[in-house]
Amino acid sequence: MSPKTMKAIQQHTFGGPDVLRYEDAPVPELRAGEVLVRVHAVGLNPPDWYLRDGYKMLPPEWQPKVEFPLILGTDISGVIEAVADDVDGFSAGDEVYAMVRFPAGLAGGSRTYAEYVSVPASEVARKPAGIDHMQAAAAPMSLLTAWQFLVDLGHDAPNPLQPN
Which residue range or ranges hold the Alcohol dehydrogenase-like N-terminal domain (predicted)? Predict the structure, then answer.
C-alpha cells in the first residue's frame, strides 16, 4: 500500500529557483490506465524552467493558466509501485522510464519532481538493464529533441517555447 503523503518540490508562484519548495504533498491517486511510479531520478529540461518562470517568453495570449501549487518535471526513471486494474503488461517492481504527459502537462507540470508520480501506462517503457536510473531519466526529452531535428527535419510546426 502506498503512503498518503510524499516529499515533492512544489512552487506556489512564478519566479527563479528560489520559488521551489521541498515539502509534503499528497501522493497522486492512481486512475484507470495509469501506473504509480516511485521516482528514482528526474530529468531537468528547458520546459521546466519556462513553466517555473511563467512562460514569460510567450505572448500573454499563449501563456497557459496555471493553478498553484504545481510540481514541475516530465522525465523520470523509477520503479512501479502500483498498477491500475485495467493495465496489462506492467507489474509492481518493474523498472521503467517515461516522459510524463508531454506536452499536455506543460500548463500545470507533469508532477515528476516528487517521490511518486502517476503515469499513463501508454507513456512508460521498461528501463534498459544496461543503464542506471539517472541515465534513463536523462533520455526522454533529449531523445525527442534529437528525433525532431534529425529524423523529422524540416517539419513546419513552430515550437511556441522557442519562437526563434
Answer: 32-128
